[in-house]
Amino acid sequence: SISSISASFPSIRPNSNFVSAKIIPQVSAISAALLYIAGSGWESYLESQSICGTKLPEGLLESDRLPEPLFTPSTKEDVGRHDVNISFSQAQELVGDPIYKSAAEIAETCGIILADTKFEFGLIDGKLALIDEILTPDSSRFWPKATYKPGKAQKSYDKQYVRDYLISVNWDKKPPAPRLPADVVENTRRKYEEALERLTGKVDNKGARGISAK
Fold this sequence. Notes:
Layout: H1 2-8, E1 26-36, H2 39-48, E2 50-51, E3 54-55, E4 65-75, H3 88-109, E5 112-124, E6 127-131, E7 140-144, H4 160-168, H5 182-200
Antiparallel strand pairs: 1-4, 1-5, 2-3, 5-6, 5-7
């Protein structure tokens, strides 16, 4: 931790390059919040006209906006001995209105559609807490609002670009993963940077984007 490093090396002072972490029991539930139908949700809709047991209206198109955000609970395959279950209602109460809806509204004012995102949970001192990264291009679908059009896959600022490359080379999703070409890495970096710049409005003189509220 930062405190132990500082104690051992007094000349080192914590700064923005340090992350203070705490190992906590992770619960087995993950909640995906989606307002637009895409990815595995779209595939599920084509098969059963539903997502995670929730029946949806007929005639939806790929990337269509849903009437209200849909919260779809799932679990990790590897469940450790410290994992505990939480209910769907707990997950929705924790991340529904207070986080996802607010984030989606803010992103839209910046020209980005927050189509869906993922939340993971843990226990801190016996209390349910939101853990891990949230609302990033790794855990969300970010679409440019200016080019959005239902009925097809959307352009994006997220890791869908990497997924599409891996599909194109027929990766079987088993390790080791294929090495990404330099152009795929660079194009992905540019997408992430553009999303961050749109959301924060910050660019430093080295070209790295800052993370401060717009």
